[in-house]
Amino acid sequence: MNTNDFLPINGTDYVEFYVGNAKQAAHYYQTAFGFQPLAYAGLETGLKDRTSYVLKQDKIRFVLTSSLDPDNHIAGHHNRHGDGVKVVALWVDDARKSFEETVKRGARPYFEPVVEKDAHGEVVRAGIHTYGETVHVFVERRNYQGAFLPGYIAWEPPYRPAETGLKYIDHMVGNVDWGQMDIWVKFYEDVMGFRNLVSFDDKDISTEYTALMSKVMSNGNGYIKFPINEPAIGKKKSQIEEYIEFYRGSGVQHVAMATGDIIHTIRELRARGVEFLHVPDTYYETVTERVGLIEEDLEVLKRLNILIDRDDEGYLLQLFTKPVLDRPTVFFEIIQRKGATSFGKGNFKALFESIEREQARRGTL
Ligand code: FE2
């Protein structure tokens, strides 16, 4: 633990998506991913211009917000980007200090510190801009006992499909435009005090057709990991370029959610209609040579199409959904770590070939 950490972060507080229809999106995350209803804000709570549904699964909180006003910033954001992540909120002990320290180091303010209160206590929040139109909001909860934040009421519908075993956000990846990766690496280093854990270049991450570069940024205590991707020159259009084109700029590419039992989680998600990238059966013919002994039954992993990778510290199991929106932009990763602290580099090639097959079907390769 770095005692000079000027931006101590306790974890991800929430991730807010701006979507076209928050009510229906909430139903999708409940039904398909097993998120539980937590809080609501909208016309009934005095808001005139938006509706937000808050869902929770263990430590993960998603806020789904849609606009009721064609002229507000939510509608503008949705019109430009489609459904996507607007806010990556970080749980801190001191939101004012987090704001001051980052702004002092060059962060562009999104909103000044504001104290929000209701009968359940007090929350302080402040925001700064990051890549594209994405923002970080610092959230300081002082013994707040309410459902989510002041202004929200508890949302308690009878419809509650079971959880699927998702526990916490392992990492969140941003795609940035050509030539922007090092600018944002520097932003996370200088403005937020993160460090660059690992880098991949186009030699690590390329197939016959496409290439990308990636650098993994981590905060002082390692609770927050933000890999940042940039497209690289390839024979054809990379998935990062496809994202940038359809998202109309930089934004969050995927949210990786950890599970303690990936076999159970993937079985549930598949049964509920979540679609995953597919790697061919031949992947499993050579995987043991690469990863050695694992505890899980390889036949079961193959049947569920779960991927495996190993590093010096252990191994990991992972799988990626197809984009969960209309545009080929945001998707989710499901990951179970068994010692490994890396990100599945050994699976990149098989995955990218799978993504290219999807891109070819979309006519965007
Ligand atoms: Fe990932």
Report on the structure:
With 365 residues, the chain is α+β, with helices and mostly antiparallel strands. It folds into 2 domains: 11-154, 2,3-Dihydroxybiphenyl 1,2-Dioxygenase, domain 1; 166-362, 2,3-Dihydroxybiphenyl 1,2-Dioxygenase, domain 1. It contains 9 helices and 17 strands. It has helices at residues 22-33, 73-81, 95-104, 181-191, 239-247, 262-271, 283-291, 298-304, 348-362; strands at 11-18, 36-41, 50-57, 60-67, 84-92, 109-118, 121-129, 135-142, 153-154, 166-175, 195-200, 211-218, 225-232, 251-259, 307-311, 314-320, 331-338. The strands form 2 sheets. Strands 6-7-8-5-1-4-3-2-9 form a 9-stranded mixed sheet. It has an 8-stranded mixed sheet with strand order 11-12-13-10-14-17-16-15, sandwiched between helices. The longest helix is centred in the C-terminal third of the chain and has 15 residues, at 348-362. The N and C termini lie far apart (44 Å). The structure holds fe (ii) ion (FE2). Residues 171, 173, 254, 256, 333, 343 line the site of fe (ii) ion.
What are the salient characteristics of this protein?
alpha+beta, 2,3-Dihydroxybiphenyl 1,2-Dioxygenase, domain 1, 8-stranded mixed beta sheet, 25% helix, binds fe (ii) ion
